[in-house]
Amino acid sequence: MKHTISVLVENQFGAFNRVATMFSGKGFNIHSISIGETETPEVSRMTIVTEGEDKIMEQVVKQLNRLIDTIKVIDLTGQNRVERELALITVFYQKGTRAEIISISDIFRGNVVDINNKTVTLEITGPPDKIDAVVNVLEPFGIKEMARSGTVALKRGEQLKHEKILSEQK
Amino acid sequence: MRTSKQMLSGAEIFFECLKREKVEYIFGYPGGAVLKLYEKLYDVDYLKHILVRHEQGATHMAEGYAKATGKVGVVLVTSGPGATNTVTGIADAYMDSVPIVVFTGQVATHLIGNDAFQEADIVGITRPITKHNFLVRDVNELATIIRKAFFIASTGRPGPVLVDLPKDVINAVCEFEYPEKVELRGYKPTFLGHQNQIKKAAEIIKNAKRPLLYVGGGVIMSNGYRELRLFAKENNLPVTMTLQGLGAFPGTDSQSLGMLGMHGTYWANQAVNNCDVLVSLGARFDDRVTGKVDAFATNAYKIHVDIDPTCIDKNVIVDLPIVGDVKHVLAELAAEMNSPLPLDDWWEQINSWREECPLHYEKNDGKLRTEFILEKLSDKTKGEAVIVSDVGQHQMWVSQYYKFNNPRSHLTSGGLGTMGFSLPASIGAAFGIKDRPVISISGDGGFQMNLQELITAAYNKLPIKFIIINNSFLGMVRQWQELFHAEKYSFTDLSASNPNFVKVGEAFGLKSFSTNSPNDVDSILDEAFSINDGPVLMEFKVVKEDMVFPIIPSGATINEMMTKRLDPKEMV
């Protein structure tokens, strides 16, 4: 089963590396990993999408907690959450297909962010399965290249407030 | 004591911090990147620097010191090769949870990443084998980082911490203030066990018909051996120990079943297999203990006490986890119990297993055997010595035949299985322990892996008894070749290539003995133990082809235990 795990780590040299090293050292899968600053500059949030049996996922969470730079680990799986990913997709177009590609982008509420005489680059955001769907539809046109940000996620509504209160108390 | 807020150099701050951490010994080796530290060290009188001959030796010495005393072992080496040479020792300390702090020199910060002379990314290299590591990038952080390093190494589940010290940081000057408190919001080990869980555990133990305590190194590290003795004795509970747990409970006590696992005793393994409540105390269900996980103690309700939550449910799923310091949990468990358990039937069963298949070796053919030497040694030292074993057959025989009476007396490389551990580790132990004999036992293979450190022992006049169990083979590998690899003795026969160990010993200035006769063992031990102004070396040439029994093959169940060498005639 896929798990989305949110990890608050000290925003300092090597913290990201420690997490990545732990995953490879323990043989855990990583589907995606993204990292950025949070509302508190000295804390970074990593969002890790990983997969494995429940027993393995329990170990993943424990091993993350064990790292000295880890402040908090939240397994968002099964919780009410918002998940988003950003993809930049450069697609080849021919005479007549450009409008079609752009209309596909519109259906998925994407934006055209670059265009030249051969390709068009689309910006698509949404849950990872939506990005997968866009990619599927665009594939027949010929995807030149693609960059996906990996998932970022937060808990929804009240729980977020609660968590914020906790982190403020810290 | 200096007052706070003084301007000091990084090198001065380094030693001020070590002084405040009450460091007695640094095991080290100088080099370019740490010259400034060694310049300052020249005038330091509050700690002693021990010059090693190879940086791996330094890390094992720090381990030996830490394991024997419970204090933090400290290593200081230079950058590049100095740092990379410490890697094996650090990995060893990580696997066996030994508190050491390794300080490595590093090229100046502006040169990092430039492939500078003697540069190695030691922080990157050691990230998976340290509990934590630091690169000090600003002299203002130095004191705080050293404070954190000692704190992290010695608390919770102990482990190695590495601090990388760039040359310019050591030379730089700043105000010195030693932090009173350590602030680590991401590191708060759970110390006290959960009350309800402990109460529940006590209830289950009270109602057990066939309980068993499975004791690991955590009981020794937490100094919980008194609590263990009280708990086991007052409740009449049988105790089996892991390799690292030996000494936590007296080996001579009738309630001790000895070691469990691959080379554990028949009765300890039978007890594990048949118990109805298994209480794991500071042990981690290592594969050398469990064998085939699915068949391990299948009938038992499993209680697991450990300070490291990652150990719980990692290898074996348990019924009742208690995360906490095992010393405290044991004390609270004991308080919940009220009277000795009526376990006569269980004890009768265990004792019948004891009689069914005792430890056994050939005594009547006049040949010298390791087991005989170890029995002599155990008697002679009354189980009071600090035994530092290496890795292999002799190590398993030590665990079977030496009856440890005290904790912190059996120092060995368990998790990583590092050949070459014993010789340097015994040196570290001998610096820490002065009132009991320190005995290093190695095979002829392992002895040669760090034998350069013999001079460190000799120069410092440490009264270590170095014993070489020489069977002219890499014995444990040979044993596996015989049992599992078609008797292809590929590169394990050292008989044609071993040095003359007596001459080696003498070259390093050690009084050295050698024999292949059981009749000489007593007199050699007597003479060796009468020498206390320096180390001695004893080579015992033992039977070549002996194997360690019992053995449960890797990944097998107790039913597949072999208790003796199969006679080809019986196999037909």
Helix and strand pattern of chain A: EHEEHEEHEEHEEH
Question: Beta-sheet strand percentage of chain B?
Answer: 15-25%
Structural category of chain A: alpha+beta
Are there runs of chain A of 5+ residues with pLDDT below 50, and where? none
Shape of chain B: globular
Mean pLDDT of chain B: 96
- Order of strands, main sheet of chain B, comes to 3-2-4-5-7-6
Please, could you describe this protein's structure?
The complex is a heterodimer of chains A (170) and B (572). Chain A is elongated, with a radius of gyration of 19 Å. Chain A is built from 5 helices and 9 strands, in the order βαββαββαββαββα. In chain A, strands 5, 6, 7, 8 and 9 form a 5-stranded antiparallel β-sheet that branches. Chain A has a 4-stranded antiparallel β-sheet with strand order 2-3-1-4, with helices on one face. The two termini of chain A are 32 Å apart. The model of chain A has no long low-confidence stretch (mean pLDDT 92). With 170 residues, chain A is an alpha+beta fold. The longest helix of chain B is centred in the first third of the chain and has 15 residues, at 55-69. With 572 residues, chain B is of the alpha/beta class. The N and C termini of chain B lie far apart (78 Å). Chain B is globular, with a radius of gyration of 24 Å. Chain B is built from 24 helices and 20 strands. The A-B interface holds A 9-10, 13-14, 17-18, 21-22, 25, 55, 58-59, 62-63, 65-71, 170 and B 123-124, 127-128, 131-132, 135, 137, 152, 184-187, 308-310, 312-314, 317.
Q: Which tags fit this structure?
A:
heterodimer, A: 170 residues, alpha+beta, five-stranded antiparallel β-sheet, four-stranded antiparallel β-sheet, B: 572 residues, alpha/beta, six-stranded parallel β-sheet, 24 helices, 20 strands, globular
Can I get a quick summary?
With 170 residues, chain A is α+β, with helices and mostly antiparallel strands. Chain A has helices at residues 15-26, 54-66, 98-107, 128-138, 157-169, and strands spanning 2-10, 32-37, 43-51, 70-75, 81-92, 111-115, 119-126, 143-148, 152-155. Chain A contains five helices and nine strands.
